[in-house]
Each structure stands twice: as C-alpha cells, then as structure tokens.
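Model it.
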Amino acid sequence: MSLVGKLFPTNYTNHDEPLGTANFITQQDIGGDRTDFINDAVLLNAPNTTSWRRGFGVPVLLVEAILFNKTDKEPTQRQLYQIAELGKPQGEPTRAPAFMRLLVDAAQPRIPDEALDFRDEIMAQIYDRGDPTPKRSLTFHIEVTDEGSTWGPSFFQRRHFTNWVRIGRLIFDEAVASYNGDFVIHFTHPTWRDDRNDPSTATRVNERKIR
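Modeled.
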C-alpha cells in the first residue's frame, strides 16, 4: 500500500494561474507487506525493502533498482524538501525533516471482510455501499523525525527510527477508485540532495545526473 500526494500553494480550489506543486511519496515495504487492514499500515518516505516478497516480480524490482540507481543515489528514499520549500520566501533557509510516516487514526473503524481489496476498504471508510454521498472521513496522522538509521544490502534494507513528532493530519472526505490514479496523474520523484536543505547538492540538475 502507498499514499502519494500533490500539494498546491493555495487554498483556492479554482485558482486560474498554474502553480508549482510539491509531491510526497510514502509506502509500506517496497517488496510488499502483509496487513489485514489499512488501519495497520505504516507508510514511510523511507520504507524497508524485502525484495523476495515480490515473488515472480523480483526481476522487475531489480530492473527498477538499476534504473533508479542511474538517476539517484538513494533510490529507496524520497526526500521531503519539496514540501518544505513550497511557497517559501527566497533567501529563507530550508528546514526539511529527514523522515515522514503516515498512520491511520486509531479511531477509524476496521472494515470487516476477509481478503477485502484495499480500494473497497478505503471507499467503505467514507461511503455506504450504493450511496455516492460521503458519510464519514478517513484520517491519517503525519509524523516526522530526523533520527533514523539504515542497514543491510539494497535488496534487504532495514530502517529504524526514533523520536517521531506528530505535526498534522490528512483528512479525506471524498474518494474515487479510477484509472486516472495509476495512469494519468503523475508525481515528481524529488532528486536526491546530499544535504536535503541545500539545492546545490542535488544529484540531478535539469534532469541530468551530475553526481
């Protein structure tokens, strides 16, 4: 399971002028994870990697790893500086956290149904079956920390974090299961920075790898 987002620097939904956006990318274990309910998922911008859980998909995962390594230094992490710099005044230093996780609020009900598709589970959190009017909302808590460590080879990476701080919430009061989510809308993968707060340390400039 993953949750990605595109943030706009305005609260006005009918804004006419094109605006730059900030994207975040979080997910469970890159090789796949086992949770019976979305309520138990921990979504991270720097998840573990257990490659053999992909089964016959392992060769695809390895090819992806090679391609990502050609473009970035740390292909299994997605830095958060785009969010920290969205709408930030020129000249003001960037202060981006290193790690972020999203957790379903403990008060969210669990949708009882064996082997329920997670898309149906998400829809059931907000809607009653057959009724297009939202009845509830789905809340995720946003937590960040700068304290984390990584060990293990790329195909079996493990990460440990401490001192999470809760800074906000994501509240979804509408949802749709659609083709667009996988094939039309795109989310920028931020290029790796050796110093996440310093643009001059970026791995890529104008989409070309320079470090």
